[in-house]
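From the methods appendix. Each design record in this collection lists the tokenized structure first, followed by the designed amino acid sequence. Records were kept in a plain field format so they could be parsed without special tools. The example shown here is representative of the layout used throughout.

RECORD:
FOLD TOKENS (73 positions):
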């Protein structure tokens, strides 16, 4: 069956997911900076910050699960 994760291996998948996690963290940082700088009100970005946090949890869990699978193989 074709690999649907767009990665060559579990190691590659973890690497790509780690980059995605880093980007989500950076996005959250910039959203918070917009609020702290009083450029955008908190109410405008609160939903986006929440989505970043949810994505970060999903991606992090995916990394942990894949690393656990790699360790057991």
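DESIGN:
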């Amino acid at each position: 069956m074709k690999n649907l994760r767009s990665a060559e291996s579990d190691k590659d998948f973890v690497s790509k997911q780690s980059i995605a996690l880093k980007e989500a963290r950076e996005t959250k940082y910039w959203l918070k900076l917009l609020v702290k700088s009083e450029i955008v009100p908190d109410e405008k970005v609160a939903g986006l910050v929440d989505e970043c946090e949810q994505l970060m949890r999903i991606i992090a869990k995916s990394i942990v699960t894949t690393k656990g699978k790699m360790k057991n193989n």
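APPENDIX NOTE: The chain has a mean pLDDT of 91.
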